[in-house]
Amino acid sequence: MNRLKSILGKAFILHSLLSLGVVEANAGGAHAGLATAPNQTIAANGIQFSYRSIGNQSGTPIVLLQHFTGTMDYWDPAVVDGLAKTHQVIVFNNTGMGHSSGKVADNIEQMSTDAYGFIDALGYRQVDLLGFSMGGFIAQELAAAHPDKIRKVVLVGTSNKGGGEHLMKVLGEAFSQNMPDPRLYLFFTQTAASQQAGQAFLARSSVRKERDPEISKDDMNAHAKALITWANTPDTEFSLLQAIKQPVMIVQGSHDEMLITDNSITLYKHLPNAQLVLYPDAAHGSLFQYPADVVAKVNQFLN
Question: What is the pLDDT of residue 175?
Fold first, then answer.
């Protein structure tokens, strides 16, 4: 527990620096889409959810589910805007995150319930999901519980339930590194090529000027409890995965040490209808290292 508090303390300092603009990347040129889309709100179950809708308004929308402590601004414009060329892409802040009202949940089950409330309030007959990291946990819960609403699922850099045995160790290592942003350690390998891709991602994701508020320390603790509990709750019979009948695309890096690459292979083996894409020299954030190729493969899968 003391180790967890130490890791969260370091993480909160980083988020505070980001919100003050102390930790910055070279933003580069302006981007249309995610960087400029207006925030919208929609009410569901007493919560005012903030969200952005980008791209083609026809077809089945794709809803993106974010990682641990991340807001809408932590998505990569190269991925969101790339998908938005052919799809309606919806990013949102779950309960209590960013400008969304309410209290941040401390368990994946409640996060999933809240996310479904938001999705249902949008009024679409069906949606597709892309869940990254902790967002992949929520995507699995939603797909199993709501097969009529969830059409297809993309799981990126995530794990089966109970597959988080390396999580604390890697988080501790990330926040002990002398790096300007721990995502360079967690999301990318330490090769020159991967780190260069990481710097490019940080630059793209910093373009938006009117940004969501960063997570508070208490809410970070709630996220950590949800993440660690779900990732360490055994599902020895893989009952959650067996309940997901929809087509699933799994995207992973060859060297994810946070939610280890082997767990994506476990997903592939136990999901009834899955395909697996592995990227070389990539870690937890393979979609940010290979955005154009991920967009192309996701488009092919969804279409």
Answer: 74
Residue 20: per-residue pLDDT: 37
Structure-block tokens of residue 255: 């060297």
Within 10 Å of residue 180's Cβ, how many Cβ atoms? Answer: 15
- Give SS3 for 64: strand
Q: What is the largest CA-CA distance in the chain?
A: 50
Look-up: residue for tokens 């779900």? 230
- Checking if the pLDDT of 298 tops 90, the result is yes
- Weakest-pLDDT range from 25-34, 37-46, 102-111: 25-34
CB atoms within 10 A of CB 95: 23
User: How many folded domains does the chain comprise?
Assistant: 1
Regarding pTM above 0.85, the answer is yes
DSSP per residue, 158-176: ---TT--TTHHHHHHHHTT
The answer to whether 231 and 68 are in contact (CB under 8 A) is no
CATH number, domain containing residue 25: 3.40.50.1820
| Radius of gyration over every alpha carbon of the chain, rounded to an integer in angstroms | 18
Q: Could you tell me which of 216, 205, 212, 203 has the C-alpha nearest to residue 92?
A: 212
Domain assignment of residue 221, given as a range: 2-302
The encoded tokens of residue 250 equal 């799994």
